[in-house]
Amino acid sequence: MKRFNLISGMVLLVAAGLVVIGSQNTPWSQDNTALKGFGKNLQVLQFNNLIELQTYMKGLTEALGVDCKYCHDLTAFEKDIEDLHKDEARAMMKMTQHINEQFFKESEKQVNCFVCHRGRTEPVFSLKEWKQIQESEK
Ligand code: HEC
Ligand code: HEC
Fold it and tell me: Cβ(68)–Cβ(74) under 8 Å?
């Protein structure tokens, strides 16, 4: 009897876990649009699977302090939309790759979007500016 409870408890836990994972995935599971677009229009980046791409894109939103829709049409992630910032981001990806290839190939640490952008679309390049921003956000 005890054993049965333990097993059904575990089943419940796993099911609850899946629900949690599922709900965290919203931009991705939304009609599976991300999955449908994946691999159709990658010109700079390379990913082995959707999870890798997901991790990278989530990092992008954090590095710039934006949502997916800053760069994407949420119904078709592969599309390039002129009014959004996907093209600019692509140019920045090339630049970042170039810097890393050229100068940091053997380095443990590599340049990424956050290095310049610090969670904002407008990059921050001086300590003075950074302090002013922090002051104004208090
Ligand atoms: C700052 C801009 C930017 C943000 C924010 C961003 N992306 Fe992207 N995303 C890109 C760029 C640029 C590409 C194409 C890269 C390439 O050409 O190699 C891309 C590619 C993709 C692709 C692959 C499309 C294809 O053609 O294979 C998917 C799916 C995707 N993004 C999903 C997302 C999701 C979901 C989010 C939010 C969590 C997000 N992106 C946030 C810029 C962005
Ligand atoms: C070496 C510093 C540096 C790095 C690294 C960098 N950026 Fe930028 N980024 C800039 C600068 C500088 C500008 C502003 C250009 C301008 O104002 O004309 C900019 C502008 C942008 C813009 C346009 C913002 C706007 O409001 O028009 C986007 C989008 C962007 N970067 C995305 C990225 C992404 C994505 C990455 C990582 C792949 C990245 N950047 C990495 C320096 C950097």
Answer: yes
